Predict the structure.
Amino acid sequence: MSKISIIAAIDKNRAIGFENKLLFWLPNDLKRFKELTTGNTILMGRKTFESLPKGALPNRRNIVLSSNASFSCPGAELFSSIEDALANCKDDEHIYIIGGEGIYRQTIDLADELCLTEIEAEASEADAYFPDIDANIWHKKNRDARQTDDKHPCNYVFVDYERRR
């Protein structure tokens, strides 16, 4: 069975985006995202794919979900459902779900772990949110707090959750 991880950066209200853009620019969060996902599979919705500045991310298998079978996503594989996408993954594949809101909501019950950057601030505007993190289902495995600095406008914490068994 493939390992499924959800990766996201969320603010104090679980906000993840506004108008298909990230809420905060945190270079260390982007670095962590790259370190975790490189060499693995990333699965995303169409809008998330469209938000990538250069299209498909290099050195990763890119999977895009869209109900539009003619959607063009160069460098990525297109599937119409999460079930079809996962059925086309190998048992030893590590799949990172990278958004957006609808994809997170549809996959949180399938995930083995959550790799979150919890931002200790509120976005001024948001229109997309991460699902609730139920403490009865998710256990904090690791926590790495980071402070504001010249490149990071607010405190944030890398938190890894694992599903309670």
Q: What stands out?
A: The chain has one domain: 3-163.
